[in-house]
Amino acid sequence: MVGRQIVLRFKRPNLQPSAFLPSTLKKMIELKNIEKYYANKGIKHYVLRHVTTTIKQGEFVSIMGPSGAGKSTLLNILGMLEEPTYGTYEFFGEDVTTLNERKRIELYRNHIGFVFQAYHLIDEMTVYENIEAPLLYKKVGSSERASRIANLLDRFNIVAKKDLFPNQLSGGQQQLVGIARALAAQPSVILADEPTGNLQSTQAEEIMQLFKKLNQEDGITIIQVTHSEKNAEYGNRILHIADGVVKEDVLVR
Amino acid sequence: MFKLNLKIALRNLFKNKVYAAINIGGLALGLTAFVLMLLYINHEESYDTWSPDLKNVYQIREKHAFFTPDNKEHWNEISNSRIANLIRTKLPQAIAVTKVDNDWDFIKGYSLKIDDANPVMMPKIKDSDSSFFKVFPYRFLQGSEDKALENPKSIVLKESLAIQLFGTTKVLGKTIKVIRWRSDEGTSLTVTGVVAEPKYPQSVSFNAITRTGDRDKDPENPTNNNYCLVYTKLNKSSDTLVLNQTLQKMYVDFKKNLLSSQKKSYNDIYKDGRLPGLKVIPVKEVHANPPYAMSWFEKLKPVIAISAFLLLVSVINFINLATAQSVQRAKEVGVKKVLGSHKTQLTWQFLIESALQSVISLFLCIILIEVVLPAFNNQFKVDLSFWHNAQLFAMVVQLFGLFVFVTLLAGFYPAWILSNYNPVSVLKGNYENGLRGIALRNVLVVFQFVISVTFIISIGVMQMQSQYMSNKDLGFERGNLINIKSNYEDNFAERLKKIPGVEYVATTTQVMGNTFNVPEEVKYKGNAINLNTVTVTMDALPALGVKVLQGRIFSKEYKQDTINTVVLNEAAANLFGKNIIGQTYGKVDWEGKTNIFQIVGIIKNYHNEGFDKSVLPTVYKVTGLGGTSNTNNLLVRFNTSKYNDVIGKIEKEWKALYPNYPMEYTSLDDAFSKSLEDNNRFVNMIILFSVVSVSLSLLGLFALSTFVAKRRTKEIAVRKVLGASNLQIVNLLNKSFLILVIVANLISWPIAYILIKKWLEGFAYRIDMPVLPFIAATIISIIIAVLTVSIQARKAAVSDPVNALKYE
Question: Is A109 touching B (CB cutoff 8 A)?
Answer without folding.
Answer: yes
